[in-house]
Amino acid sequence: MMKPDYKELDTLVIGAGQAGIAMSEHLSRQDVPHLVLEKNRIAEAWRSCRWDSLVANGPAWHDRFPGLEFSNTSPESFVPKEQVADYFNEYVKKFDLPVKTGVEVLSAVKNKNSSGFTVETTAGTYQVERIVSATGPFQTPVIPSIAPTDEELCQIHSADYRNPQQLPEGAVLVVGAGSSGVQIAEELRQSGKTVYLSVGPHDRPPRRYRGRDFVWWLGVLGLWEASASEPGKEHVTIAVSGANGGKTIDFRQLAAEGIRLVGRTQAFANDCVIFDHDLADNIRLGDENYLSLLDRADAYVEQNGLDLPEEPDARTLLPDPDCMLNPTYQLNLRQAGVSAIIWATGYSTDYSWLKVEAFNEQNRPVHHRGVANYPGVYFLGLPWLSRRGSSFIWGVWHDAKFIADQIVIQRQYQQYRN
Ligand SMILES: Cc1cc2nc3c(=O)[nH]c(=O)nc-3n(C[C@H](O)[C@H](O)[C@H](O)COP(=O)(O)OP(=O)(O)OC[C@H]3O[C@@H](n4cnc5c(N)ncnc54)[C@H](O)[C@@H]3O)c2cc1C
């Protein structure tokens, strides 16, 4: 077993998902001595924390780091999750990055009367000057407290969903209609199950428009670079999918396929689940969001004189489905034969190991573009860390570059007349 590298270790990166790997590449480029510690395997989240059929949300030409293309796949394809994990392993090899797997960081404490931190791990103690937390934006699955206590119901978080065969016979309620909830609901429906999908506020960009994928449109329109979500849209999820070759998420189409859409899940009582009266509003706002991106795309084409084929059919919406016209506000789970609930309700973070005052009252990191308000601590990979793209594969690489620059600047000050 490797011995801890006392004093000589400048920067410790915790986590070897895409964020930790990007960080290591940039630190290596700038000759910053560092080590990445990963408690599991490289890109473990892609390997074992996603359902079997998951593919990347963005096409292979986009959802990658600049230094390596996906091998054996078309640039327009949506890469299966195992291949994404393989890609990051290949990346570590290609750039010879110092990653040590199977080592968990248990605690990091600021040294008293000396610079740096003492870091306890399952492989001994490290003394480091700086810490980059790349432990992931989606760490701890969140199931809201309204979840019923009925032990006969099978309840799992989307993080634990793998495939339809895993569920007991009977209908399923999927709560949450972001990218995960929608894809899981559709897979369950295609397997023959009766599916109820609880739909909250969402954005739903067109998968492709006028021959270009939405990732391209967000890029040229500068929307990946937006530094904060629009006011009032902080809790709006985005419904987008690369499944089945990639298609626009269309709730009207899902209803036509037999998925029973309901509003936001509000409460459970006496075998019943109560839904908000917001389904029609949520779907209409989603449609508005979809159409507004088409408008912006058309304006961009015109302003720049681009020769992209017109696509007027993209503006034709299916009629309002019955579930919008005659909404279900209450469902008796037993009578409806619902035997399982899948909570596609998101994740929180866990920084219990990082024992420094770098958090606010809600236990969220306080930082500017990943540079914590606590000297020597950096965060990477979080949603909106610096921009919309921050928690996505390509965006984290750019955030890591900025943080590496900041670390180099601090090292220069520390080395001044040293
Ligand atoms: C279902 C789903 C689909 C997604 N699809 C896409 C997509 O298609 N394209 C895209 O760009 N983004 C996608 N994302 C978003 C994002 O890219 C992934 O969540 C990605 O895994 C985040 O990478 P990360 O490195 O920040 O965190 P993670 O991949 O979670 O890596 C963090 C690592 O830190 C390790 N770790 C945590 N605590 C410790 C500790 N104390 N000591 C040592 N190691 C520790 C973990 O084991 C883990 O390996 C998706 C997210 C989800 C949930």
UniProtKB/TrEMBL annotation:
<keyword id="KW-0560">Oxidoreductase</keyword>
<dbReference type="InterPro" id="IPR050982">
    <property type="entry name" value="Auxin_biosynth/cation_transpt"/>
</dbReference>
<dbReference type="Pfam" id="PF13738">
    <property type="entry name" value="Pyr_redox_3"/>
</dbReference>
<dbReference type="GO" id="GO:0004497">
    <property type="term" value="F:monooxygenase activity"/>
</dbReference>
<dbReference type="InterPro" id="IPR036188">
    <property type="entry name" value="FAD/NAD-bd_sf"/>
</dbReference>
<protein>
    <submittedName>
        <fullName>Putative flavoprotein involved in K+ transport</fullName>
    </submittedName>
</protein>
<dbReference type="GO" id="GO:0050660">
    <property type="term" value="F:flavin adenine dinucleotide binding"/>
</dbReference>
